[in-house]
Amino acid sequence: MAKIEIEYLGQPEIDQVALTNDDILDAVEQGLIAAGQGKTVIEPRMHLTPDPAFNGHFNVLRGYVEPLGYAGVKVVGDFVDNYKQGLPSELALLNLFCPRTGVPRAVIDAAGITDMRTGALTALGAKWLGPKKPRVLGHVGARGTSYWNVRLLDHLFDFEEIRVHSRRPESRDAFGERLSRDLGKQIIVTEDWQSCLDGADILIEATRLNQPTPMFHRSWVKKGALVVPYGTMSALPLDFTKGFDKFVMDDLGQMRAGHLGALRPHIDAGLISEESFYAEIGEIAAGLKPGREADDETILFWHRGMSTGDIALGARILEKARDLGIVQNLLYRDA
């Protein structure tokens, strides 16, 4: 039997790779195009709750991206109270495998990948579904993915006004300061949901609620806006889905599985079904369906996270790390 080594990348190596905004967007877009072309396999995420007392759970995402030659499994822990211990709420590992033999190829720290690919999916969704020239961004939530939402959205649109809010003042203030420093522009930190979201052109909800709570009012969404709600626990009242012209999903398999997500209460109540969705985002990325078709379309894009985005971004990071010579090779099995 031949010797098998696994390529390993931790956070220090990923930081050295220093992907640019365009690197991130391009990698995730290529994964979406492959999905739209039917060149991927995406299994709905699975959840594991070790103990409700821990206030957290694991997400397990699985997929295959034919053009990249990788199958992958990502396990991400999502533990709301980690901040009390000075830890990120989400920590993860991505495992890449040879899809023909099952041989493990790489183990990569995926906490940052999760944040970047989620932000890229939000931004790419806005690229195809948002208003032509959005002026105001409203963003609720300061979790790890939130930074990349705002950074990559602003990279595409260069907003005139960015408003942010989260429940804890220390969290939202620090978030606003980081964004202001990194984006080089003023960030408006608001004290409530309405002043953050009301009348914005693009409205993002990425909260850390402990249980489904109707916080996001439909009256704040103006005609022609794009809404992207993806909090684990729904913040949307049951009447929120009325009056939208299009519903777009990242992957419809994600809406059929699990008990979490922004539209889960609406699905359970029979208000939203698979037939309600105009398209999967991969179909739009691949040019099989148009995205926004009119300025006055009001669109909701729900994404729950696609394993193909993790695999695509992990593969891009691994490629660049090889070029830099910073990959660690770990012996898995010897002959």
Automatic annotation (TrEMBL):
Gene3D superfamilies: NAD(P)-binding Rossmann-like Domain, ornithine cyclodeaminase, domain 1. One of its GO terms (cellular component) is cytoplasm. Pfam families: OCD_Mu_crystall. This is Ornithine cyclodeaminase. It comes from Ruegeria profundi.
